Amino acid sequence: MEILILGLTRGSVYALVAVGFVLVFSVGGILNLAHGTLFMLGAYFTYIYFNFVFGGAGALALPAAILCAVASVVVVALLLFFVLFRRKIDSISYIMVISLAFALFIEQLTKVFFGVTSTGVPPLVRGSVDILGVRVLYKELLLLPVSLIALAALELFLSRSSTGRAIKAVAQCRDGAVLIGIKPDRVLALTIAISAALAALAGTLVSSLVTVAPTVWGYWLIKAFAIAIVGGLGSLPGAILAAFLLSFVEIATTFTLTDQYGELVALIIIVLILLFRPSGLMGARQA
After folding, report:
1. What whole-number distance in Å separates Cα of residue 287 and Cα of residue 285?
2. Rounded CA gap, 137 and 134, in Å?
3. What does the pLDDT look like over 87-129, one tens digit per residue?
4. Are 107 and 37 in contact (CB under 8 A)?
5. Fewest CB within 10 A of the end CB: N or C in the chain?
């Protein structure tokens, strides 16, 4: 039961981060190496707004800080797109180098203002509940429903709205989308905003569970990239499936062996999938 609960909660956060990463790659072919930084900024902005803007007091201080943090990260991501990415959007190497440089710059900036020590905020809900003999904190249980609601809202937006269908059209065939009047740059900007919001939301949720340090962006970038590979680059359902799969593997291995083996087994799975199914679990096979 403990493996099940921890696997679901960790997997839900993995899914939020990875889906945004895969979505941007699907629409723009962009490997954004600053994606983990957007997660980190979500946590740091929550800390800043909660403590320095809203005074760290009051029932609405933390929810307001979370909303402001997500909005701020979206603004940062759009600035990154319009100021840096858009200039050479078709150059894969340029995007990877400039996004990595941005991530390293933000890491150093947070070290200047906050040092190398960790930060965190109080949970939205306090207390715990006993589930079949397993004590689970309410703040941990909150992760799964919030993530599922966010992902379900994204799916409804992509499938039911005209803007969402435009995003899918660009992802499927950019040239065809242009022929029917869709502007790919606008669609890509909106996609980056959605991706940033998902990553920031994950960061805000985790900021009350664990402390966040300036170097944490690398961990979450690697997780997003690994999940994208396992699920299949370009497949949102594949990213969600892979997120929970890797989460359960890590948790189960950690419980039976040690933390170090959890990461090792996850890497072995990634290598095996690359060897026997390079397109990923739900990626399209090449003819």
Report:
1. 6
2. 10
3. 898 899 999 999 999 999 999 999 999 887 777 788 777 787 8
4. yes
5. C
